[in-house]
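Reopening this one. Same input as before:
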Amino acid sequence: MANVVVVGSQWGDEGKGKIVDWLSERADIVVRFQGGHNAGHTLVIDGVSYKLSLLPSGVVRPGTMGVIGNGVVLDPHALVAEIARLGAQGVKVSRDNLRIAENATLILSLHRELDAMREEAASAGTKIGTTKRGIGPAYEDKVGRRAVRVMDLADPDTLPAKIDRLLAHHNPLRRGLGVEEIKREDIFEELMSVADQVLPFMDQSWRLLDQARKAGKRILFEGAQGALLDVDHGTYPFVTSSHTSAGQAAAGSGIGPSALNYVLGITKAYTTRVGEGPFPTELFDEVGAFLGEKGHEYGVVTGRKRRCGWFDAVLVRQTVCTSGITGIALTKLDVLDGLEEIKICVGYMLDGERIDYLPASQGAQARVEPIYETLEGWSESTAGARSWKELPAQAVKYVRHVEELIGAPVALLSTSPEREDTILVQDPYQD
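Same output, byte for byte:
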């Protein structure tokens, strides 16, 4: 049985929620392996929208187990609130359909406060565009070996010493920022107030997944954000604080990389980005506005308007390499309906030289200029198409050219937010 990793091949917001939900019908377990509640998925099932930012998409599907892996940073209060929101929509979340890695790092109020203070104090041009949800500071504490983890909630006797170690780092920072220091008792109370609601989900995720793999269960690894926000391989420093590329699926869940059989890169038929940072194909004209309005390009978590631009084959081709993408799921093709011509970025000019990759340097990334190919658009609608024969000839030509440019085949083609409006070319779970 194949185990599938789903990653965004651009800057996130590629439509992973629908694809993960579509695949979860074939999966027994859906695993989140990185990030926190700073990225969202919108699932549309039978006309009902479910907005998830922390919980794995599988929890809304009966019979599917959701797992929050050790690579995730978990805000326990955000978790409880999200479970309550789903409960109000008739989705019950219990130990039967959700487990949380015992060694996952917790996000605390002091992380959110530090995140916001840093972003607000940053000068023009240096803001990262963080969601201010404490993700980055929590990861800093994780690698600094002072984090409080899920399992610590089960041992309140040892918690004060762990909090003291944490505050030995944070209180000097707060003094330097001119804000009030935090007392151990306040953090202890913050954690204990939610411990009883989180601990029932705690488990050894690595053991659970190993047993599932050996039993022939199908596992779906669900990434958040996009590969171009990877802390190593993205547009640094305008990135998230975790590894968003496919390799993190193994480390962030505790399963060996040999268990990862297929990497599906979710790829939007154009390009969007939320927040700051380079965006070579960004459009500031009426076409950019058209893509934003027709594609409803607003962040699920923040509501921020997304920046829009033409498809960048250079970036996606690079992600195909860094994440080992087997095939892509091309989404939102229908947003391009009605455009007389469509452009694709096929290379960059950098300081007078043509290059076929995105340089790692922040300065060079800001200076690259896109080189475009222009394709004929189509006037017919692709919305809701469920077979190739329902697509206009020029739309098929566009898809085939994308495949050629990025060096990866289209495994699925999505033509609307509805899960059934999907053209299946290659089932990642096919034996």
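So the earlier flakiness isn't reproducible anymore. For the record, The longest strand covers residues 341-350.
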